[in-house]
Design goal:
Chain lengths: 342, 225
């Protein structure tokens, strides 16, 4: 069975030959290939090479485009800060004064504006290189994250209280922009889209705020992606125990969670309608522990959630660049050892 | 709203005003907090008392509500905003006591990480509890922590990281403290979503805070003699 078939079968809630394993590796691959992160921000070939080099060496089940560099927000006017060897962050948000700045916002053209064409070129190149055997993950920010990256997270959170109407107008524009960019990502060859939203967990906002400000827009975004015929997995870092069902209701094929969610609980609650992905600790286990510890944590995760299919072994978030290669190897080995379906 | 002529507040009226100030903070009522702060000054109430017995009590309640999961980040930010507006009005009227040196805490989000909401919440809580906070901001170069701790004679360094990729910066700060022979002079606390007590122990920090609401208690414990 190819990695592509394996992942697609799991996303369809069925049993592949074994549990697919998808370490979320971006800066990790960049370092494996000997580059600095700032180099791949402007050189597609180097990024593509880092992905191909790493997957061939470690044999996991998915390649990733140059994700989560706020390219959509940058294309709409936010200014990024790009460190030499770390992913960028938003330095100056685009939207300061709602009344002045909202009317100026335009939906970026994916093939013309900002860094978007460069990232899409990478997605296309990845697909050409791996063909039908390995799935290509294309990344699109969740609309709420995109909103935070255009407004500044703290201000956006305060807007929930002080400027809810203006905030919703910005969310509406953000959602539309995510859909337009997502279409281009699919066209470039992505087999699945990763929608991630680190700012909408129960560590940040109440369930009520999630239902009012995040869910309707996120659902619209994900439904639009589904209509394009692509697979979608939704990742929200942090404690999402009280909103797992809403996450499943967005229409995503898979829900990806971190260590704050118990996989067995997620499987029971929503495992009958979405694929579950998770939840090996990147910051503690993968970065700092031994391959034996990694194997043990993977074994527990697999045992909790593999039954009946519809499970992908993944980390709780992006894997740090300094993570030892042996630990990624241990993660990959664990699915072969404990995750084979009879 | 209390409206009494200058300087004739009875103790019960003063208490009532403090309670109202606290409530404005809890409710995130910015206008109410501003009006009450002005009222306090007009009535000759000690500004420091109004902050500590009114605003700080309110913020403490907010911290409890946050810890209990009744308040989330937007609610805390709104309360902090109400508190800060009242503090702005009261601050110029504080009579400074130069005899005692306040406990100083250096705070910052480590290099490469711009997620500063948690750190800002910690600052709000520590400010409200009367500590002197030296806020280095976000994306703070590793060397700045040791430098700021020395320059300010800080008692505690508080660091946060919100990304698994930037967490290792906290370890580097502890290593620099050791290298500079300064580790014994200052306590180290860390926090941020991907961190754990276990992580704090492995990097040689003294304490880990689960969330912003635990910061005041931790600083109190770390600096108790």
């Amino acid at each position: 069975m190819t990695p592509y078939e394996r992942l697609m079968i799991a996303f369809e809630l069925k049993k592949p030959d074994r549990v697919p394993v998808t370490p979320f590796v971006r800066e990790w691959c960049v370092r494996q290939a000997g580059y600095k992160f700032s180099e791949v921000m402007s050189n597609t070939e180097k990024y593509v090479y880092s992905q191909l080099y790493s997957i061939r060496k470690y044999g996991y089940d998915m390649v990733l485009d140059l994700l989560a560099v706020h390219a959509e927000s940058e294309a709409m006017g936010s200014v990024l800060k790009i460190p030499e060897d770390a992913p960028p962050s938003v330095d100056i948000p685009a939207v300061n004064d709602y009344s002045k700045d909202l009317p100026k916002l335009r939906i970026p053209h994916p093939r013309k504006d900002g860094r978007l064409p460069l990232i899409l070129k990478g997605t296309k190149r990845l697909k050409e290189a791996v063909g039908d055997t390995i799935p290509v993950m294309g990344y699109v920010q969740a609309c709420w994250r995109h909103t935070c990256m255009m407004r500044g997270t703290e201000r956006a959170l305060l807007d929930m209280k002080k400027n809810p109407d203006a905030l919703k107008e910005l969310l509406d524009i953000a959602t539309e922009s995510c859909i337009v960019y997502g279409e281009a990502v699919v066209e470039a060859g992505a087999d699945l889209i990763w929608v991630s939203d680190p700012t909408s967990s129960g560590d940040m906002i109440s369930k009520k705020a999630f239902e009012e400000f995040v869910y309707p827009f996120l659902r619209r975004q994900i439904k639009a992606f589904k209509r394009m015929g692509t697979k979608v997995f939704l990742h929200i870092c942090g404690n999402v125990n009280d909103r797992l069902e809403s996450m499943a209701n967005t229409g995503a094929d898979a829900i990806s969670v971190d260590e704050k969610v118990d996989l067995a609980k997620a499987k029971t609650l929503i495992g009958n309608r979405v694929c579950i992905m998770g939840n090996i600790s990147p910051g503690v286990t993968l970065l700092q522990k031994t391959p034996q510890d990694v194997e043990q944590e993977c074994k527990v995760a697999i045992e909790k959630a593999m039954e009946g299919g519809g499970f992908v072994l993944a980390p709780g978030c992006i894997i740090p660049a300094a993570t030892p290669g042996e630990n990624i190897a241990a993660m990959v080995n664990s699915v072969k050892k404990y995750g084979v379906y009879q | 709203m209390v409206s009494i002529s200058k300087g004739v507040l009875k103790i019960t009226e003063k208490t009532e005003l403090f309670e109202k100030l606290a409530k404005c903070v809890v409710d995130g009522d910015e206008e109410g907090a501003k009006q009450l702060a002005e009222e306090a000054i007009k009535n000759g109430i000690d500004a420091y008392e109004a902050i500590m017995q009114g605003l700080a009590v309110g913020m403490n309640k907010v911290s409890e509500l946050y810890e209990k999961g009744e308040y989330y980040v937007p609610e805390v930010l709104l309360s902090a905003s109400a508190m800060n507006m009242a503090v702005e009005i009261l601050k110029p009227h504080i009579k400074i006591d130069k005899t005692t040196k306040p406990i100083a805490v250096v705070l910052g989000v480590v290099e490469g990480d711009i997620h500063d909401i948690g750190k800002n919440l910690v600052k709000i809580m520590l400010d409200a509890a009367g500590y002197k906070v030296i806020d280095l901001g976000k994306d703070v170069p590793i060397g700045e922590f040791v430098k700021a701790a020395k320059e300010n004679g800080a008692d505690v360094i508080g660091m946060s990281a919100l990304m698994t990729t930037t967490m290792p910066g906290m370890k580097k700060v502890v290593e620099q403290l050791v290298a500079a022979n300064y580790r014994e002079k200052v306590k180290v606390m860390i926090g941020g979503a991907p961190t754990t007590m276990e992580y704090a122990e492995t990097i040689g920090a003294d304490m880990w805070g689960k969330d912003a609401s635990s910061a005041v208690g931790i600083v109190k414990r770390l600096t108790a003699h």
